[in-house]
Amino acid sequence: MQSISMQAFTEKVANENVSILDVRGIEKYRAGHIPGAKRYIAGETQAKLSPEITYYIICQVGVTSVRVTKALEALGFDVINVEGGMVQWQGDLAVDES
């Protein structure tokens, strides 16, 4: 399983167009997520993923993202776990009020 440190991930987000899957619950996602991150819902989101894209998987503290990263990797997706989770993210947040 591939992982990336929060520092390296933050630099990547600042300099590249990356695909981020946020695996937290709806309340935490709506309260604040990385701009451009899509909420991951097991089964539902999975059907929409492309094997051509690298996805960065993030959760609240870095535990759930490991499990999801391993599961998606086993299905053949190119995924990278973001170490430390949202508690270590210090960049901007987008809020979803819908």
Secondary-structure-based class equals alpha/beta
So how many helices? 3
Strand order of the largest sheet: 1-5-4-2-3
As for the number of domains, it is 1
Helix fraction bin? 25-40%
Order of helices and strands: EHEHEEHE
Largest beta-sheet details: 5 strands, parallel
**Amino- and carboxy-terminal Cα gap:** 34 Å
Provide the low-confidence segments as ranges: none
CATH 4th-level superfamily? Rhodanese-like domain
Structure characterization notes:
This protein is α/β, with parallel strands linked by helices and 98 residues long. The protein has a single domain (2-88), classed as Rhodanese-like domain (Oxidized Rhodanese, domain 1, 3-Layer(aba) Sandwich), CATH 3.40.250.10. Helices cover 28% and strands 19% of the residues. It has 3 helices and 5 strands. It has a 5-stranded parallel beta sheet with strand order 1-5-4-2-3. Strand 4 (54-58), helix 3 and strand 5 (78-82) form a beta-alpha-beta unit. The N and C termini lie far apart (34 Å). The mean pLDDT is 94.
